[in-house]
What does this fold into?
Amino acid sequence: MSFSLIIFDYDGVLIDSLADAISAGREFCRAISHDRVPTQEIIAALEIMTYPEIARSIGLGPAQAEGFCSYVFEYFETIGSAMKFFPEMESLLHRMEANNIAIVSGNSRDVIFAKLAAHNLAENIPCILGALEPGDKAQKIHKVCHHFSVAAERACMVGDSVSDIRYAKRAGVHSIAATWGWQSRDLLVGENPDFIVDSVRELAALLDSGYSTAGHMQGESSNG
It folds into this structure.
């Protein structure tokens, strides 16, 4: 049995954006004279990986959090061409068949679409649900499955945070934890994802073989 639908997170799975997110967040905090700023340590410990949650974690109120998110998304739009795919990720996306790939992300849909379009990937990934679409990530995963008419048990979510794994489980899809992103391998393993992958190459092998890849179930990996 193979997966009929692959749902990707964006930041930390497809794009190496952590340093840029921190930089944008710090610029916003300086602009409003807010003393606390986002750090890698704060983000690494988040229970829910969203930009509003990053804002709340450094003491920003609701209105300021909205401004924080807008600033970060505008910053990403400005530097979009400079933001890098993780090694081998772009080639993996180009190899995958169109119409069975989606992105569910806490980033802006406009930011994501512009990046995909710049790399001739927009047609490969026809469904993108970003931060401004209603619902939490589990609800968005359900919407994506409905959009493609794919049962949840035939779909998987590739994420890099504990909340990605939890939302995948809540939505009834298989969870694949990518350890090259924003949260640590140990933290991800603690959530008991269905699969752990330590490189894009391992992810590609898993997606090629569906459920049959040995050594990836329940936190096992060829790297240890």
Summary: Strands lie at 5-8, 101-104, 127-129, 155-159, 174-178, 195-197. The two ends are 26 Å apart (CA to CA). Confidence is low (pLDDT under 50) at residues 211-224. Residues 26 and 37 are 5 Å apart (CA to CA).
